[in-house]
Specification:
The chain is an alpha+beta fold and 313 residues long. It contains 14 helices and twelve strands. Strand 7 (122-123) and strand 8 (130-131) form a beta hairpin. Helix 5 (74-82) crosses helix 7 (133-142) and helix 8 crosses helix 11.
């Protein structure tokens, strides 16, 4: 296979003028390929081998080659690692990381970010090259529009098993310019303790902890009908289980049915009361939720006293 065909194969049909010249094609030869429509211009000096719409991977390759040396960053790095399907992952803009001393014109659809230690943060062997997962997660979380979005990003990264809170904390410690360091470190410590979603973290920090409720066991494993399941929060001494319904919509009617079946199994097998909480109960009415939950816990053996937070009326 000739060098140009090999590059086109490895780069999803995208190639740069710099690479063509390195393959011994001179300027007239490149112009001839464009004139024959064997290549089409994407960005200045970057081409694709067809004239139709570009796939996401082709746009990503084009952005990296235009900005070279560069690597996908932020949401684009996470999109490359996670694949398509995340409804909240914006794909219209391609984010790339370049060295801190670079100055680049931003072509349409590309957003460059100047970073330190690009060589150490990038995975150059991947196609396209991208910033390492933990660095990209921290970049997205640090620039998230709301605290809830940042928590969701960190929790999703750990819940997907692509990384762990401890690994992200280790990367955080090596980023001297990281904004919101103390806050991000606190959220990651809570994730490491078992809060596996934004809703679970909200329950810990807005319901349980500020209202003096007992500390529940998080993500405890149990077997139901031969299948290993995990309970979001369990107060074993009181036989109370709290399940956080963090999905805006259940995956299916059968998934909802399995959730309710698990609740019934906990009540029948262990006499445990299962309380299922939603976003509104945690984020809109945390004080009311805490007060009602404290009453349930006290009726089932908790001898402590709930506390009033600064927002309690």
């Amino acid at each position: 296979m000739d060098p140009v065909s090999e590059l086109l194969r490895d780069q999803d049909g995208v190639i740069s003028r710099r690479q063509l010249i390195a393959c011994d094609l001179d300027a007239p030869a490149v112009a001839r390929l464009l004139r024959r429509r064997e290549l089409a211009r994407v960005h200045p000096g970057v081409y694709v081998e067809h004239t139709g719409p570009l796939s996401w991977h082709q746009r990503a390759w084009a952005a990296v080659l235009f900005s070279w040396p560069a690597a996908l960053s932020h949401d684009s790095s996470l999109r490359a690692a996670e694949g398509p399907g995340r409804r909240d992952r914006h794909e219209g803009l391609i984010h790339v990381a370049v060295a801190r001393d670079r100055r680049l014109i931003e072509p349409t659809g590309v957003r460059p970010h100047r970073v330190g230690d690009l060589a150490g943060r990038a995975q150059w062997n991947l196609g396209p090259p991208r910033i390492r997962y933990e660095h990209a997660v921290l970049d997205v979380a640090a620039h998230a529009p709301t605290d809830l979005d940042a928590i969701a990003e960190l929790a999703n990264a750990c819940g997907s098993r692509r990384s762990t809170a401890d690994r992200i904390l280790g990367v955080l410690a090596d980023r001297p310019r990281q904004g919101r360091r103390a806050w991000l470190s606190g959220v990651l410590s809570d994730v490491a303790a078992g809060t596996c979603s934004a809703l679970e973290h909200g329950y810990l920090t807005q319901v349980e902890r500020p209202h003096g409720l007992p500390t529940g066991q998080r993500q405890g494993s149990h077997r139901h009908a031969g299948v290993l399941t995990f309970r979001d929060v369990e107060y074993a001494a009181c036989s109370v289980v709290v399940e956080l319904d963090g999905r805006l919509f259940h995956d299916s009617t059968s998934q909802r049915d399995r959730d309710l079946d698990r609740d019934l199994d906990a009540a029948a097998g262990e006499g445990a009361a299962t309380i299922r909480l939603s976003w509104g109960q945690v984020f809109d009415r945390p004080c009311q939720t805490a007060a009602l939950l404290a009453r349930v816990l006290r009726r089932r053996g908790w001898t402590g006293e709930p506390a009033r937070c600064e927002n309690c009326g």
